[in-house]
Amino acid sequence: MHLTLPHRAIPLLIGTMLTGCATGPAFQAPDVAKGVSDRYVSGNAVSKTHDATTHDNRQAGVAQQVDYGQSLPAQWWTLFQSPELDQMIRTALKNNPGLQAAQHTLEAAQDNLRATTGSLSYPQVNGQLGAQRQRGQMAGATPSVYNLYNAGVNVSYSIDLFGANKHQLESLAATVDYQRFQHLAASNMLVSNVVTTAIREATLRDQLQAAKTALDAGRNVLQIQEKQLQLGAIPLTAVLNQRNAVNQLEAQIAPLEKSAGQSRHALNTLLGLPASDTSVPAITLANVKLPERLPVALPSALARQRPDIQASEALLHQASANLGLATANLYPQLNLTGSFSYSRVETGAGGAGSTLWNIGAGLTQPLFNGGALRARKDAAQANYDAAEAQYRSVVLSAFQNVADNLRALESDADVLKAQADNAAQTRQTRDIVRKQHAAGAVSLTSVLSAEQAYAQSQLNLANAQGARYADTAALFASLGGGWWDTAGATGNGAKHQ
Predict the structure, then answer these.
(1) What does pTM read for this prediction?
(2) Does residue 71 or residue 54 have the better pLDDT?
């Protein structure tokens, strides 16, 4: 029995084969806004921190207002209004080798996508040219020498019947997105590390200066008490107590000097400079302004602003594309080929040429492979499920990160207020004792003891001030760093409820 296919159906069949039908899931970005609360922290929302401004703490003591629904500027570090800090960050963004490595990795991913796109999306055309000089002899004939010339073109193209090529390119495009957001995350982390390291160095220098002042006062008190002990004016226990206090102050100096030096070395490394470099000036806390208004994106918008969340979404997209590719590999593959060649033989008696062309199609269908293709599809499904779970984990960690930083700022303000009050009280006590000593009412030992207590309070105050600056920078970094808003525009004005 013979079946005849109507001529009208042939173009329809060819069109259907060329169009193909994609297999596997169509990726959809996760809807992180669904079921997300409009607040970060449990309990009362952090809206405004306490005002801890005192005579000893004018810069770092201001109250900070949290503006929910607002967007960070791209150069968020400029909110600290420090030219020295701005210079450091510009140097780091230019010189840091880790950031440069992330940039080159992104470029490699982009090049791989372009190369694979060229291989899969367009026919592959290869030309051939050849020339040979040969000597041959037919049976019973005289040997002859002749020249052989040939030229040809080969064409091949794979019809993407079930979307294998589409999903492969989709996977590579997701890899490019992942590397792009990894680069943004590296940039955001670099800026955050520069700010916090510079602030830590400035804090340690202030602490070191306060510790040295307290130590000098303590040693002076000890010298006076040792003389009083020789005269029998005070008991030995008073001298021993003061020696112990001096020893404790001395024990603070070396660790502070070590930490300050290591902070400078770490900062230089972030800037892409040798540890011994001194070309970039250090900052001082007195010259850094604490931002009074804190733009904080709503939780529903955070997922589109945190580079690490976007990178995790790109990995989820890649896993979805790989699942589609593994599914498509279960189905037939159609390859079209064609060639054209021309050959010519030149002998002493003349020459002759010939042409050859062909066109064909090949269909490959997996029949038996021991279940390998099905197992690869199952593995791709498991990888997708793992990527989806990892994405949810990254989102939850991001929300926790912002919540922790908001609570830290609230706590920092309370600690700073307590330390500022203590510094103000010890300063007042010192001033009173100075006046009493001038009137002859108290000894010099009392004055030096008051000076020692005030210097110690300044050390604690410097630590509290540095924590406020550092945690403010950490909050900005946890919000994504403002990379999406290069114009520095604010958000849509949505308010936190």
Answers:
(1) 0.83
(2) 71
